[in-house]
């Protein structure tokens, strides 16, 4: 498909060049019009110019700063740039074709979807990278390119993806703000891509991707232009909708067979049109009976009802309707990991393991817990920071952390602090219980997009008192600024 789109773009350039030459020459252009529905009008050309400005501006700057940093960040930037180039080809195609069906749209978006998946897979394959926060910022926000499939208002969707990136870019700024300005510039250039994309969408595709209202046709064309069009555009000027012309165009340039004829009109089985009219009149006469329309219905006994239900159950339970387990293969399980990799303790994919223990810790080490379920982990000693990501039903007991303890994308987790921790962060989590020690009562607890959070503080020797973290807030305007406070839940 990419090759066909490139040919189309080259053909458009050649047609425009010939058109300008003919218009400037003596006699102008035969019959006035050159091309009607290549859709290179003022609005469409401005749309593509604005997107090209985004590519040559923020995207180019992002690639440049990524190359300066090098390593995994440079490789990731190349993948992102390829994804944006694929989107540009898709937007170019939408300018000259009507909106396809949902099934055909999925096929057209497959190259973009595969490139987004490649960007995200790169992060998963390089979890041990020292630039993991950079990779995570890109991986969490790259789905923003899917705005072309979002109906109504795609702008807020891109903003949501941008917010997801800022969670990790803030970490990058924290780590490199005072040591390496290249990373600060990298954050600025990358976030500006999504900011400018929101502006682009708001100006040119406010309510969703705009497709061409007509198809590619050529009217009143000078012979020299027609020669170019016959050589370059023949594979494209075929079908009425984008997918049929781009995905299944014959290689020899021949037009596809015409569509099947429409079904015969309703109530026109009789060759005589008057008979069809009479049938329509009879139908409306029956519908206008009012309550009398139910008099012709036959009563169904309970026995007949049960027989019908039994027949339906038998039909539903027939072997032909049972799903074939071979169609959906079981999900691939990852090997469990508990190891020290450089300065990072990796605890990954542990399941039903209740005796996980990390003993030999140092102040500079971090602990990263990922994809664990129904397990318990104990960390002895003092570490730099702890991250719990994408875990289910996990119990974590640790002595102390000099930095932050974070819980991200988790469900039903419990944390117990035996010593001291300055900050606990809870993000995108459902169900989190935090047990504080007497030494950690002054810690800051920051939460976002989370629910069912409870903080338990020690009371007495072996007892705890539970306090729920507010999930609902009230915001009012006081005349000069917004005031936000948690709402009190009755009961």
Low-confidence spans: pLDDT under 50, at least 5 residues? 26-42, 216-271
Strand content: 15-25%
This entry's quaternary arrangement is single chain
- State the CATH superfamily name of the domain at 39-204: Adenylate cyclase-associated CAP, N-terminal domain
The helix/strand series, from N terminus to C terminus, equals: HHHHHHHHHHHEEEEEEEEEEEEEEEE
Give the averaged pLDDT, no decimals: 77
Radius of gyration: 32 Å
Give structural notes.
- The protein is α/β, with parallel strands linked by helices and about 500 residues long.
- Among the domains are: about 40-205, Serine Threonine Protein Phosphatase 5, Tetratricopeptide repeat (Alpha Horseshoe), CATH 1.25.40; about 335-485, Pectate Lyase C-like (3 Solenoid).
- The protein contains 11 helices and 16 strands.
- A 7-stranded mixed sheet has the order 1-2-4-6-8-10-12, with no helix packed on it. Strands 3-5-7-9-11-13-14 form a 7-stranded mixed sheet, with no helix packed on it.
- The protein is globular, with a radius of gyration of 32 Å.
């Amino acid at each position: 498909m990419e090759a066909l789109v490139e040919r189309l773009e080259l053909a458009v350039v050649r047609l425009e060049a010939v058109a300008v030459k003919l218009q400037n020459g003596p006699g102008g252009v035969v019959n006035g019009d050159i091309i009607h529905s290549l859709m290179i009008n003022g609005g469409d050309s401005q749309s593509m110019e604005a997107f090209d400005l985004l590519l040559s501006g923020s995207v180019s700057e992002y690639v440049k700063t990524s190359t300066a940093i090098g390593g995994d960040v440079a490789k990731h930037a190349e993948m992102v740039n390829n994804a944006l180039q694929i989107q540009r080809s898709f937007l170019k195609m939408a300018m000259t074709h009507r909106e396809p069906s949902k099934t055909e749209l999925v096929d057209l978006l497959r190259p973009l979807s595969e490139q987004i998946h490649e960007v995200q897979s790169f992060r998963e394959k390089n979890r041990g990278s020292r630039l993991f926060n950079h990779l995570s910022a890109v991986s969490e926000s790259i789905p923003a390119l899917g705005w072309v499939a979002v109906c109504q208002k795609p702008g807020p969707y891109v903003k949501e993806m941008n917010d997801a990136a800022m969670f990790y870019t803030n970490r990058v700024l924290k780590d490199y703000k005072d040591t390496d300005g290249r990373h600060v510039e990298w954050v600025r250039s990358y976030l500006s891509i999504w900011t400018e994309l929101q502006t682009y969408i708001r100006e040119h595709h406010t309510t969703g991707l705009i497709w061409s209202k007509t198809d590619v046709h050529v009217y009143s064309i000078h012979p020299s232009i027609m020669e170019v069009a016959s050589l370059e555009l023949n594979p494209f000027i075929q079908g009425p909708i984008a997918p049929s012309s781009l995905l299944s165009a014959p290689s020899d340039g021949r037009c596809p067979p015409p569509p099947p004829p429409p079904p015969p009109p309703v109530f026109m089985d009789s060759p005589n049109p008057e008979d069809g009219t009479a049938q329509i009149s009879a139908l409306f006469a029956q519908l206008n009976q009012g309550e009398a329309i139910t008099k012709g219905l036959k009563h169904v006994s309970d026995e007949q009802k049960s027989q019908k239900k039994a027949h339906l159950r038998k039909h539903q339970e027939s072997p032909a309707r049972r799903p074939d387990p071979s169609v959906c293969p079981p999900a691939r399980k990852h090997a469990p990991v508990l190891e020290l990799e450089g300065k990072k303790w990796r605890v990954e994919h542990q399941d039903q393991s209740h005796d996980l223990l990390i003993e030999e810790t140092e102040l500079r080490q971090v602990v990263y817990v990922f994809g664990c379920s129904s397990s318990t982990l104990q960390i002895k000693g003092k570490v730099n920071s702890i991250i719990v990501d994408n875990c289910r039903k996990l119990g974590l007991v640790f002595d102390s952390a000099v930095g932050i303890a974070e819980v991200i994308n988790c469900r039903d987790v419990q944390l117990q602090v035996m010593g001291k921790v300055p900050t606990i962060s809870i993000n995108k989590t459902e169900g989190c219980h935090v047990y504080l020690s007497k030494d950690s009562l002054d810690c800051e607890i920051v939460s976002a997009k989370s629910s069912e959070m409870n903080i338990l503080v020690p009371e007495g020797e072996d007892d705890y008192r539970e306090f729920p973290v507010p999930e609902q807030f009230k915001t009012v305007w006081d005349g000069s600024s917004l005031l936000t406070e948690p709402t009190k839940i009755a009961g």
